Amino acid sequence: MNKRFSAAVTIAAAAILLSSRATAVAIPVETPVSDFSLQDFRGKTHRLSDYQDSKVVVLAFLGTECPLVKLYGPILEQISEKYQASGVTILGINANRQDSITNIAAYARRQQITFPILKDVGNTLADATDAQRTPSVIVLNSDRVIVYQGRIDDQYGIGYAQENPKHTYLIDAIEATLADQRPAVANVPAEGCLIGRMRKPAADSSVTYGTHIAPILVKHCAECHREGEIAPFALTSYDEVAGWADMIREVVADQRMPPWHADPAHGKFSNARGLNAKEQQLINQWVLAGAPAGDLSNLPALPPKADGWQLDSEPDLVVQMNETFRVPADGVVKYKYFEVDPGLTEDKWVRAAEVIPGSRDVVHHVLVFARNGQSDENSGAGGGSFLTAYVPGLRAVELPTGMAKLVPAGSKIIFQMHYTPVGEARTDRTAVGLYFADEKDVEQIVVTQETTQRDFAIPPRNPNFEVEATSQRAPIPLRLLAMMPHMHLRGKSFRYEALLPDGQRQTLLDVPAYDFNWQTGYRLETPLDLPAGARMRCMAHFDNSENNLNNPDPDATVGWGDQTWNEMMIGYFDVAYPRSRPDEQPAAAMRLMKQFDKNEDGKIQRNEIPQKLVPVFEQLDTNDNDEVTLQELKRLPAVR
Predict the structure, then answer these.
(1) Do residues 565 and 604 both lie within one domain?
(2) Are 566 and 489 in contact (CB under 8 A)?
(3) What CATH number is attached to the domain comprising 179?
(4) How confident is the model at residue 62 (pLDDT cuts 50, 70, 90)?
C-alpha cells in the first residue's frame, strides 16, 4: 500500500458535520431480523422476504447530508456491483425524520446509486435493529440472522481519512458469510451522524424551539448552517433542527461545536466561538424533552446573507485562479499552487482581503500570498508574503482603521489550495477580492510574520514530539493583532509566547488540541503592544503514533514538506508598526533582514550573505563598515 497519503475526508464538511462518538452495538449477533415492508423513494414496496434467494442481505443505514455517508455511498455501490452476482443484496435504509423522499432521490442520483434506498418512516426498522448512526451496516445470512454490524471499513472517519482502508469489515463479513463461515469480527462501533429519530415532545416542557433554541442557533450556528454556506446541512427551520437534535446535543456536550480550540486561560479573541453554560443547558433540556416546537410564529430573523462578498462593498480588485481545477470524487489530492499576475503597475495598500471558493464543499482551506520577485526559500507555506486565508466558517474582516498591508507593484498572487473529495466530482476556480486603502490614510503598516522551524525529523511512533522556533528580536516596538498556527496531519498542540526584553514570558495563545480541519486565525480582542527587543517563541507538538487517526504512516520519519503527509511548523502572526517613524521598516526589508541576519544582531555582515550578492551589499553599505542596517536596506528599489 502506498503510505504517502493525505486526509481526503471532506473536512470542510466532516469537521463541521457535528463529529461523532463511536456507538457500541446493542443488538447482539445471532439475532434474527423479522420480515419488514418499506417503500423506496419511487414508491415501490420492498419486503425482506422478497430477497429470499439472496445468500446475504446488507442493511445499510444512510442519510442524505452526513458527509461520511456521501463518501461511503460510492463505496457501497461498488460493493453491490461486485457481489450482486454472488447472491448479495444491499438495501439502503433511510430512517432520518429530516430526510424527505425528494432528498433521498437526489442523493441516489448524485451518488449514482442503483441499489434500493428505502424510507424507514418512524424509525421502525432502525429501532428494531438498534441502528444508531449513518453510515452503518448490518449483515444478514441466509437465515436472516445478524452476523455483522457496525462500520463499513476504516478508510474514513470523523476528521481523518486514509488512502486505502486497513480493515475492510463489510467485505470480510460478506465473503465469510458466502463461504458459510462466521465473520472473524462480529461488530465494530460505527462513526457518523446520529439517526434523526421521531421523538414524542413533552407537552409540559419549559424549553421550546421557538422561544429558546432558535435564537441560540441563529446567533451561533446559522452563519455556516444555512443554504449555500459551508456546513453540510441547514439549521434554520424547526423540522431540520429537530432531525439533528440528538446530534446537536452530543457535539455541544463534547464542545466540538461551535469549533474553537484556544485555551480560555490565555488571551481574549474577537472571533471566539462558543456557547455559554446557560445556552448549553437549554439545548440539553430541549433535546431530552423530545425537541418540542413551541410557538413558531415569532422566530428570530436570520442575519442578512452575504450575496457573494461578506464585506459591505465590492472589492477593488478580484484575482481568480488562472485555471479551473477538477476535484475528483475520491482519493488523494495534493496541495495545488496557482500563480496569477494581477497586473499591478503600482504599489497597493490592502485593508481587507476575502477568499471566495469556487466550490465550498471541496475546498478545505486556502492560503493566499503576494510574491514580489523570487520565492524566499526560508518563507513558509507559499513562498511570499502572507496575505489572507480561507477556512470553513471564517468571516472576512477589515484591518483596523488606518492599517493596511503593502503589496508592491509587480507582485504575483499565489493560491495554495487544499482540496478534499466529497464523494462527487467537483470543479473549482477560487478567487480573492482585495480592498484597497488610499496611501494617505495608512498610518500603520501590517505585516504577517512567521516563526518557523524547518529543521526537524519526527521519529516513527513518537506521540509527543516537540519542535520549537523563536523569532528575531523586534527592531522596533510592534503591535500584535492576530496569530494563526499552521501544522499538518500530525499536529497535536501549538503555543505562542512573547519573550520580553526584561526576561519575562507571556503566554499569548495556547491551542492544546490542534485540529488540522480548522486552520483558525485568532484575532486579539485588544491588540497587544510589544516593546523593541521582544521575541516570539512558538512550541509545537506532533503525534506520529498510531493513536493519531489522522496519521498517514506512523512508521515514517517525518520532516518539513508541502504536502499533508509531510509536516510544517509555522507560527504566523500579524503585527503593525507606524509609517510615520523615521526608522520605518518596509515589510520586504524586514524579511531580508530575517533571511540574512544569521547572528540576529539586527545587521547584515558581509560574511552572512552569499558571494553573488556582494555587489549589492557594497552598494548598500554606504559608510563602508561591512554591515547593512534596516535603514540602508530601504534603498533597495524592490523594498521601497
Answers:
(1) no
(2) no
(3) 3.40.30.10
(4) very high
Q: Looking at residue 604, which CATH number applies to its domain?
A: 1.10.238.10
**Which cell numbers hold the place of 447?**
505585516
Q: Say which residue, 40 or 16, is predicted with more confidence.
A: 40
8 falls in which pLDDT band (50, 70, 90)? very low
One domain for residues 512 and 540: yes
**Side-chain half-sphere of 457: how many Cα atoms within 13 Å?**
4
Per-residue 3-state assignment (H helix, E strand, C coil) for 554-617 = CCCCECECCCCCCECCEEEEEEEEECCCCCCCCHHHHHHHHHHCCCCCCCEEHHHCCHHHHHHH
Distance CA 60, CA 169 (A): 13
In this prediction, what percent of the chain has a pLDDT beyond 90?
65
Give the dihedral sign, CA 120/123/130/288: positive
Check whether 560 has a pLDDT greater than 90.
yes
Counting the structural domains of the chain, the total is: 5
3-class secondary structure, 639: helix
- 101-109 CB contacts, 8 Å cutoff, 24+ apart: 101/41, 102/41, 103/64, 103/65, 104/41, 104/64, 105/41, 105/42, 106/64, 107/62, 107/64, 107/73, 108/41
Residues spanned by the domain of 53 = 11-194
Write the CA distances from 639 to 322, 340, 404, 584, 606, integer angstroms. 27, 21, 16, 12, 20
Question: How far apart are the C-alpha atoms of 235 and 227, rounded to whole Å?
Answer: 9
Residue 23, domain member (yes or no): yes
- In whole angstroms, how far apart are CA 113 and each of 8, 95, 104, 117, 376? 21, 18, 11, 9, 49
| Within-domain flag for 228 | yes
Q: What's the pTM?
A: 0.73
Say which CATH number the domain at 397 has: 2.60.120.230
527, 576 Cβ separation under 8 angstroms: yes
Mark which of 242, 260, 288 sits at the end of a domain: 288
Are 68 and 193 in contact by the 8 Å Cβ rule? The answer is yes
- Considering 318-332, 352-366, 427-441, 625-639, the range whose residues carry the highest mean pLDDT is 427-441
Give dist(CA 604, CA 626) in Å, integer: 8
From CA 545, how far away is CA 551, in angstroms rounded?
7
CA dihedral in degrees (617, 622, 623, 626; nearest 10)?
0
153 shares its domain with 176: yes
Q: For residue 330, which of 156, 191, 152, 515 has the smallest C-alpha distance?
A: 156
* Single residue among 442, 459, 480 that ends a domain in this structure: 442
At 280, is the pLDDT very low, low, confident or very high (cuts 50, 70, 90)? very high
